[in-house]
Amino acid sequence: MTTLVIKDLHGDVITEEGNKEILKGVNLTINSGEVHAIMGPNGSGKSTLAYAIAGHPKYVITSGSVTLDGVEITDMTVDERARAGLFLAMQYPVEVPGVSVANFLRTAKTALDGEAPKVRTWVKDVEKVLAGMDLDKSFAARSVNEGFSGGEKKRNEIAQLELLNPKAAILDETDSGLDIDALKVVSEGVNRYSEQGDRAVLLITHYTRILRYIKPDFVHVFVDGRIVDEGGRELADKLEANGYESYVKAAANA
Ligand code: ADP
Ligand code: MG
Ligand code: MG
User: Fold this and answer.
1) Measured in angstroms, how far is the CA atom of residue 172 from the centroid of ligand 3?
2) Structure letter (DSSP) for residue 138
């Protein structure tokens, strides 16, 4: 069982000119086995929501709560959040020069479990998830994200997701910069992860394209720092047809 609950979450981005409120009361509950999609226009605060939940230092939660299986995570460090079972795949992954994919994964897994994984099975597990992402074995020796193509970055992220197998995953723009083949491979990885049945997935996206491959149980429309509408899968089709304009106008007039 996994439940991720976001309650009246308010949060700022920290800029050089001071703090700017971006999140204006986000409410969302994701139960075990559910995939929720958040869709919204550029600049509406979707990535801010992901970063704030993940504990990125540039974003601060000013009120509200985020609980994973009843445990408040907003006052935890980034590492503690990861150990609590939260995983964030970022829209703009960072390069870690000099650290190989294999070592990065091993370090992350060791930090999560509190002990190093067994060498034999570990190597096989890594090879398996890389193969699942259509990545060659040699990929494990490359520096994390250094010179990775857009597609390789996303494949690497989902390989991480499958290997670390957290309780809850927040995937921000996992579809951006992917060609159709990569999109399929990446989506299949997310589906393998979510189909375990007791995971919570929050999929943040700007386009409906990825939702052809990853079928969300619920779709939320995100405008100006909050959820303004929600529905089933069919809402994504409505957004595809009509865009966000009516929501943006309604939010501006509110
Ligand atoms: P989305 O992911 O929906 O496109 P973001 O969360 O990236 O939206 O951005 C929401 C708002 O916060 C935008 O107006 C953006 O310019 C601002 N913002 C986000 N991060 C920063 C930052 N590090 N510095 C200044 N402004 C930021
Ligand atoms: Mg509020
Ligand atoms: Mg974004």
Assistant:
1) 7
2) G
Counting ligands in written order, the one closest to the CA of 91 is: 3
Radius of gyration for the alpha carbons in the chain, expressed in angstroms and rounded: 18
Q: Which residues surround ligand 3, an ion (CB under 5 A)?
A: 46-47, 91
pLDDT tens digits for range 193-230: 999 989 999 999 988 889 999 999 999 999 999 999 99
Angle at 28 between CA 47 and CA 154, to 5 degrees: 35
Domain with 141, as residue range(s), is 4-253
Residue 188's CATH number: 3.40.50.300
Name the residue with the closest Cα to ligand 1, atom 6.
45
pLDDT digits (tens, 9 = 90+) for 126-173: 999 999 999 999 999 999 888 898 889 899 999 999 999 999 999 998
Q: How many separate domains does the chain show? A: 1
**Ligand 1 atom at shortest distance from the alpha carbon of 204:** 2
- As for the ipTM of the complex, it is 0.95
C-alpha closest to that of 222 among 57, 28, 1: 28
Q: Is the CB of 169 under 6 A from ligand 1?
A: no
